[in-house]
Design a protein that fits this description.
This protein has 286 residues and is of the alpha+beta class. It has six helices and 18 strands. The protein has two domains: 125 residues, Diaminopimelate Epimerase, Chain A, domain 1 (Roll), CATH 3.10.310; 140 residues, Diaminopimelate Epimerase, Chain A, domain 1 (Roll), CATH 3.10.310.10. Helix 3 runs antiparallel to helix 5.
């Protein structure tokens, strides 16, 4: 029997919708790799992001990469890592403390049949109003006029600022066709991660969103949990009460995904369902 060569990479579909879709995420057991090799993993695995997981007893350390470099955090990457931890565990649920490069945070996973429900504390969300000179070039790159907005544009951060851009409805959201090069230039100049465009929530907290993050090498993200956490905190602050939302994403990319979040003030828990998929073996460049 032949033995597969190359780096083992587990593909986890994170933030499923009704058991399917989700964002394919490369999950790798921590090993000695250069940062250049880590950046190559999502490219070779056909995913937008990769998460490297080191487990030493109860301590679990995570590092996140796109083709553009290392990230301080990745929401759907965290959901994917939690699913892999659940797959290794002998118990039906777990509450690990996760160590990212800049912080330690609480998380929880529960097995539900073949999938895993996972959620975590993304940290306290910083919120502010978006200045006119900040939003104007981003709206122009999105092809949005100011009068097409459903409310004021806000800025939010979980380590890096991004704009929260409200549009009137799903038709307006679906119609977006950003100029990726122009959007990246604007975000790079302004120091933004990207922009999260969303519809108003319905009475049950359901809404849709699209996340554009060209500055980290992701023209559009299938599912973006950290920006969903930012939106939950923004809505909770605006309403002056706790908020729960379920955000549909990924439809424009043919990968329907749903991210859930609940916020009390700026304290948020965010997550989704995940399914462990195949193990690939990728040959890294020497």
């Amino acid at each position: 029997m032949s033995v597969a060569s190359g780096l083992p990479v587990t593909i986890v579909d994170a933030c499923l919708r009704d058991g399917t879709g989700g964002s394919p995420t490369a999950v790798v057991a921590e090993t000695r790799l250069s940062d250049a090799a880590r950046r190559a993993v999502p490219v070779l695995a056909g995913t937008s992001h990769a998460v490297f997981v080191a487990q030493d007893g109860p301590a679990v350390r995570l590092r996140f990469f796109t083709s553009g470099g290392e990230l301080p955090a990745c929401g759907h990457g965290t959901v994917a890592a939690l699913a892999l931890l659940a797959g290794r565990a002998a118990t039906a649920e777990g509450d690990p403390a996760l160590h990212a490069p800049d912080r330690v945070f609480a998380a929880r996973w529960v097995r539900r049949g073949p999938s895993v429900d996972a959620e975590f504390d993304p940290g306290e969300v910083a919120l502010r109003a978006a200045a006119g000179p900040e939003q104007e070039p981003v709206l122009a790159a999105l092809g949005l006029a100011a009068d097409a907005l459903a409310a004021r544009v806000s800025a939010a951060s979980l380590g890096r600022w991004r704009l929260l851009v409200p549009v009137a409805d799903r038709a307006a959201l679906d119609a977006l066709a950003p100029d990726a090069a122009r959007l990246r230039a604007a975000c790079d100049r302004l120091g933004l991660l990207g922009c999260y465009v969303y519809t108003p929530p319905d009475r049950r907290g359901g809404l849709a969103a699209r996340m554009f993050a060209p500055s980290i090498g992701v023209p559009e993200d299938i599912a973006n949990a950290n920006s969903t956490a930012c939106l939950a905190a923004h809505l909770a602050q605006a309403a002056a009460r706790p908020v729960r939302i379920a955000v549909d994403m990924g439809d424009s990319l043919g990968r329907p995904a749903t991210v859930t979040a609940h916020a009390t003030g700026r304290a948020v828990r965010v997550g989704g369902a995940a399914l462990i998929g195949p193990v690939l073996h990728v040959d890294l460049p020497r």
